[in-house]
Design brief:
single chain; mainly alpha; 4 helices; 53% helix
Length: 76
């Protein structure tokens, strides 16, 4: 059984990003997505990050909901 908490803080950790509150806020402020850009195709991801996002969404797995929420934050 997967007991990991799937929240924004842990998503940032999974992606190898600064997962402090200020790190998350800074990342979102500095990185915005155009409406036609899929989150996994954003130019600011490395290959591993992009693959993780694409695979997680394709599988509609545990991370999908928080990735969708993160996607929304990157578009505001």
């Amino acid at each position: 059984m997967d007991t990991n908490l799937h929240n924004l803080t842990n998503l940032f950790a999974q992606l190898g990003l600064d997962n402090s509150k200020s790190g998350i806020n800074s990342f979102i402020a500095e990185h915005q997505l155009a409406s036609a850009t899929h989150i996994s195709e954003a130019p600011f991801w490395n290959n591993g990050q992009a693959n993780f996002l694409a695979e997680s969404l394709a599988e509609d797995g545990d991370w999908s909901e928080i990735i969708d929420q993160f996607d929304t934050l990157l578009r505001n």
